Amino acid sequence: MASVRAALKGISGVPVTPYSADGEVNISLLTALIARLAGAGIHNLMAAGNTGEFFSLSLDEIRRVHATTIAAAEGKCLISAAVGRSLVEAKALARDAIAAGAGAIMGHHPMDPFAGPAAQADYFLELADASSVPFIAYVRTDTFSVDDFRRLAAHENVAGVKFASTNLMLLAEVIRSTEDLPAIWVCGLAEAWAPAFYAIGAQGFTSGFVNVFPEISLQVHAALVSGDFAAARKLINRLAQFEELRTHYRNGSNVTVVKEALAMMGMDVGAVRLPGVPALSEAERATLRGIIEAQRGK
User: Fold this and answer.
1) What is the pLDDT of residues 237-271, one digit of tens each?
2) Whole-angstrom Cα distance, residue 94 to residue 208?
3) Strand ranges (DSSP E) for the chain?
4) From residue 11, how far is each of 8, 28, 50, 131, 187 by CA, in Å?
5) What angle do CA 172, 173, 179 make, to 5 degrees?
6) How many Å apart are CA 79 and CA 57, to the nearest integer?
7) How many Å separate Cα 14 from the centre of its chain?
8) Rounded to 5 degrees, what are φ and ψ at 7?
9) Cα 106 to Cα 4: distance, rounded to the nearest angstrom
10) Count of CB atoms within 10 A of residue 145's CB?
């Protein structure tokens, strides 16, 4: 548990899922990507996270992504296998990922349109009960009560919570109410929100940008850990335009931008599957190319 919490205080990178020309998961490219991220020093890799298109993958593909990520990292970092959908499917995915060597399980936020907030917390708690390795809850709403969050943080197998809401007043209250508990509160909204989250008391952050320029993400993390918020903001300003592109089409281009950036840098990982946006416009692509060239020149 201590090693998992230590990794959560770092960067939780979310690798993309590469596809071959035939649309199948490209195991060799995924292996190369994971080896690069693990070798760069990323602390935790979330296999089959949202940037990995979890909800567009079949269950068998998710299992292959988990197993490939675990093998390719060669023990250099924590691998948190992302699971979700029905509780039955999530538990089965977790069992298989643990058997393959995952060091932690991350539960995706339950997306059922008729879910009750307290019942969603119960979903996470059932997954934590069922997991034989530390569990991470990925909460993408501010509808949970402070008591719901406390129930999560108090579970003996919950290592931490990825808090992915912009409701920082709620986060502050939650952190105040759980100061007696060891669970880690992680910024689930990537680099741009990390300084505000750190100021409130969160530790660590998630990142899809890490696929492209892991060294910049690592510099942001180092600045935040040292308390140098000015340096962190200066670094985050370098990726602001990149992150703005990802918000287009109501965030439909979130993964598209990362994948097209990788292709421009020599790693063609294929298009995003529907219902994500499969391709950027020519104008967006030109902007992205300029961002990459500017970063490479620094």
Assistant:
1) 999 999 999 999 999 999 999 999 999 999 999 99
2) 22
3) 11-13, 44-47, 78-83, 104-107, 135-139, 158-163, 184-187, 205-207
4) 7, 24, 15, 23, 10
5) 90
6) 19
7) 4
8) -65, -35
9) 12
10) 13
Rg (CA), the chain: 18
Residue 171, both tokens:
């986060």
Dump pLDDT digits (tens) for 4-63.
999 999 999 999 999 999 999 999 999 999 999 999 999 999 999 999 999 999 999 999
**How far apart (Å, rounded) are the C-alpha atoms in residues 196 and 187?**
9
Query: Whole-prediction pTM value?
Result: 0.97
- d(C-alpha 193, C-alpha 100), whole Å: 33
Structure tokens at 76: 């250099």
| Six-digit token string for 128 | 């934590």
Which residue has tokens 């660590």?
A: 204
Q: Which of 39, 49, 63 is nearest to 12 (CA)?
A: 49
What letter would DSSP give residue 143? -
